[in-house]
Every structure is written in structure tokens, then in C-alpha cells.
Amino acid sequence: MSMDTPRAEDLRRGMTVEIVQDQQDEPIIGDIQTVRTSEGREPEGGPEVKLESGAVGNVTQIVPDE
Fewer CB within 10 Å, N or C, the chain? Predict the structure, then answer.
């Protein structure tokens, strides 16, 4: 996997990702519940997702399976 920010079409429900939120300094790791698309445009900070925990933010990376 490249170090580039993933695109929305690379993301699927249940994948583990790292996100950042606008008001938080620390990244959050969790499983995707919903990928929010913005009609063909990628948000500046990466695709926006909602995690199963309820947190919403922009994906910085996909967390590899261990």
C-alpha cells in the first residue's frame, strides 16, 4: 500500500482506518461504518468516514491487518 491518502473508492465498511477530526490533535483508529462521499471530489484531508464508534473524521491511512 502506498503512503498516499486513500481514496473513497478504496474504503469499505468494516475496514480499520486511522482518522483525524477537525478539533482533535490525536488520530482515532476504528472500523468504518459509513463512507461519506462528496460527489466525485476528495476532501482536502482525505475521505470522510463515520466509524462504528460514532466518530466522524477524514481518513489518513488504512490500518493493515496484523
Answer: C
In this structure, what C-alpha cell is assigned to residue 3? 503512503
User: Which residues, listed in sequence order, are joined to residue 63 by a DSSP beta bridge?
Assistant: none
Helix (H) or strand (E) holding 8: none
54 HSE (CA, 13 A, CB side)? 0
Sign of CA pseudo-dihedral 15, 18, 22, 23: positive
Q: Which three cell numbers stand for residue 47?
A: 475521505
32 contacts 12 by C-beta, under 8 angstroms:
yes
Q: What is the pTM of this model?
A: 0.82
List, for residues 30-65, the tens digit of each pLDDT value.
999 999 876 555 556 789 999 999 999 999 999 988
